[in-house]
Amino acid sequence: LKSRESKKPLPEFGAGKSYPRPLPNQEEYVVEFDGPNDPLHPQNWPIRKNSIFSAATTVVSRYFQVSTEVGILGLSLYVLGFATGPIIWAPLSELKGRKLPLVLGMFGFSIFQLGVATGKDLQTVLLCRFFGGLFGASPLAIVAAVFSDMFDNKTRGLAITVFSMTVFSGPLLAPFIGGFIIESYLGWRWTEYLVAIMGFLSFGLDLLFLEETYPPVVLIQKASELRRRTLNWGIHAKQEEIEVDFRELLSKNFSRPLRILFTEPIVLLLSIYMSFIYGLLYLFLTAYPIVFQQIHGFSPGVGGLPYF
Q1: Are the C-beta atoms of 304 and 293 separated by less than 8 Å?
Q2: In this predicted structure, what is the pLDDT of residue 58?
Q3: What is the pTM of this model?
Q4: Mean pLDDT (whole number) for 197-209
Q5: What is the share, in percent, of the chain residues with pLDDT greater than 70?
Q6: Are 51 and 171 in contact (CB under 8 A)?
Q7: Who contacts 102 (Cβ-Cβ below 8 Å, separation ≥6)?
Q8: How large is the C-alpha radius of gyration of the chain?
Q9: Are 19 and 13 within 8 A, CB to CB?
Q10: Cβ atoms within 10 A of the Cβ of 279, count?
Q11: 76-134 pLDDT, tens per residue?
Q12: With contact defined as beta carbons under 8 Å apart, do 288 and 296 qualify?
């Protein structure tokens, strides 16, 4: 990225002062990491440092007096939000770092889960499901990049594998949990209250304990501390030289994933394949309740056990 060039005339410096001379060598004032073993680099940090709704689709359909096909839209729009969210969150993480989109994503996800839980009509439920998926896509789009920041090539694969296992095992564990919640006195709304509570817990933990891992933003924090302690206001990080207006943000950052998707054959083919696999997974989530509950007469809780 490059700083945008302003076409406006340069304003007066103020108080009758003329502009100071440029820095002798600007590169000498740019903060960098102190070699590959710099403890500030995320890769050198110490190691210490929602499909549950699918079980409620038939119940929601009966509650709002709509067909099962319309009730399944709650799951379909959630997945559509998953597909839309990365277009926003991934470029934002490259501009503002990883923590901000993760915190915003968890907060927005939790808010819209409450919207689903308290929705008085089907339109509210469906809209909140879409936006819940859009905000919930933030971790899916960014966590792999966080691992790339923190782990080198030797350990990155293991970290991403463990994360991927949780991503794909969660949708298979949640339906039977949601089924037993529906059978209890809590009802279908608590499938969303429970998710919202977990979302707010994650939001609080991220807000308090998650540290920034994107190296350019880490250098911004380092430069800020050095300016404060040395009173040398010329010290800065390369990322601080970037100024992006809204038009440039749309044309270069948010449209770039779409350009790569449609112009790179390998990316396009892998995306089609992964879309098919992911769609097949969620097709099972919608088909199992119909097969085992409506045809075989299983209860919602027991009808979710075949996901194992």
Answers
A1: no
A2: 67
A3: 0.77
A4: 89
A5: 84
A6: yes
A7: 138, 139, 142, 146, 206, 210
A8: 24
A9: yes
A10: 11
A11: 888 888 888 888 888 888 888 888 999 999 999 999 999 888 888 888 888 888 998 89
A12: no
Joined together, the tokens standing for residue 37 give 């073993």
* DSSP assignments along the chain, one per residue: --PPPP-SPPPP-STTPPPPPPPS-GGGGB---SSTT-TTSGGGS-S---GGGGGGHHHHHHHTT--HHHHTHHHHHHHHHHHHHHHHHHHHHHHH-SHHHHHHHHHHHHHHHHHHHH-SSHHHHHHHHHHHHHHHHHHHHHHHHHHHHH--TTTHHHHHHHHHHHHHHHHHHHHHHHHHHHHSTT-TTHHHHHHHHHHHHHHHHHHHHPPP--HHHHHHHHHHHHHHHH--TT-B-GGGG----HHHIIIIIISHHHHHHHH-HHHHHHHHHHHHHHHHHHHHHHHHIIIIIIIS---HHHHTGGG-
Q: What is the pLDDT of residue 246?
A: 66
Give the model's pLDDT for residue 49: 47
Q: How far apart are CA 98 and CA 152, in angstroms?
A: 17
Neighbours of 100 (CB within 10 A): 18
For residue 197, what are the β-bridge partners? none
At 150-199, the pLDDT tens digits run 888 777 778 778 877 777 777 777 777 777 877 778 877 888 888 889 88
